[in-house]
Write a structure and sequence with these properties.
4 helices
């Protein structure tokens, strides 16, 4: 149970960073008192590309949430593939022990079900996000 809590905590920390990825860059103008202006607004297109000002100002909560969920589903897919590899290794090294073979087959089954559920979740979320504004 402690391993599961640590994995969930690690995923939460990783995914929480995705919320702040689209934050615009700001700096204070030295010619004025304390008025802060976005740096990217004062640059031409070539300077914006060089400075990394690629933030889309029209991002919505739905698009940010979609990016976070896509990342989470990708992580689930990667973990499911790792579980399949581990289960395959356990199946090969079972040595004819029926309990170990059953455990390995169950692991493979659950991992495949996880991949299917993650794929369906991705499809449903993208469908809802695409039709949310209509």
């Amino acid at each position: 149970m402690k391993k599961i809590k640590n994995i969930i905590l690690a995923l939460a920390v990783i995914l929480s960073g995705a919320v702040f990825i689209n934050a615009p860059v700001h700096a204070c103008d030295p010619k004025t008192d304390v008025q802060c202006v976005p740096i990217c607004d004062e640059l031409d297109e070539q300077q914006k590309q060089a400075a990394g000002c690629t933030v889309d100002k029209n991002t919505s909560v739905a698009s940010n949430l979609t990016h976070i969920i896509d990342a989470a589903i990708s992580i689930v897919g990667i973990l499911a593939v790792l579980v399949i590899v581990i289960a395959g290794q356990r199946y090969i090294t079972a040595g004819g022990d029926s309990a170990k073979v059953k455990q390995a087959k169950d692991m493979i089954l659950y991992a495949v079900v996880g991949i299917v559920v993650a794929g369906l979740a991705w499809a449903i979320i993208n469908f809802v996000a695409a039709n949310l504004g209509k």
